[in-house]
Write a structure and sequence with these properties.
190 residues; mainly alpha; two-stranded antiparallel sheet; 7 helices
Length: 190
């Protein structure tokens, strides 16, 4: 069941497994949602599962995470006309063509990229700190190890958000969604 992180062999493998697993957890919460559910904001916040998925994809494509996945790439503002605010978890982050399945597929592809990159990344490699208002202005680089652990932290927080949002939408919980993601039948008694 994808709910549990696989057994790991060393530091790189652990960073890879845990970072990818948190993204897969977010992907699992999107299963079976219709367009309205994907955009629903069932809590006091403006956060929807679609916007949360878009945020995770955004942070994987820009900034320090992107540099870790694609060494040599200079972290910079997105070149598609958006800015860092596009990574916010807001209702307008969900694109008209987004579906639960398209976002789920993009998240699973990102998880695969993260896992492959971290399995071979040098944990001591220096990653440039992106220019963004929430990063320290006097810090130029982080070790890849820190960036990978921050990726785990950031996405674990969002996986928790996703669990709460999904349960608020239709009562489905992480155990059921993970069983379904793994192609297993689900029975609460099990």
């Amino acid at each position: 069941m994808p709910f549990l992180t696989r057994t790991v062999t060393d530091e790189r493998d652990a960073l890879a497994a845990f970072a990818a697993q948190q993204i897969r957890q977010i992907a699992a919460t999107l299963q079976g949602l219709d367009a309205q559910q994907l955009r629903a904001t069932p809590s006091a916040s403006a956060m929807s599962l679609g916007a949360l998925a878009r945020h995770v994809l955004f942070i994987g494509e820009h900034g320090a995470f992107a540099e870790l996945l694609d060494p040599g790439r200079t972290p910079e503002q997105p070149q598609d006309g958006t800015d860092w605010a596009a990574g916010a978890v807001l209702p307008e982050a969900v694109r008209p063509a987004d579906t639960a399945e398209s976002l789920r597929a993009a998240l699973l592809a990102l998880a695969d990229r993260v896992e492959a990159a971290l399995r071979t990344a040098d944990p001591e490699m220096r990653i440039p700190v992106p220019e963004a208002p929430w990063f320290p202005p006097d810090l130029e680089t982080w070790p890849a190890r820190w960036v990978a652990l921050h990726m785990v932290e950031e996405n674990a927080r969002h996986a928790g958000h996703a669990d709460i949002l999904r349960e608020s939408i239709d009562g489905r919980t992480a155990y059921e969604l993970n069983a379904l993601a793994d192609g297993e039948e689900w029975s609460p008694e099990e």
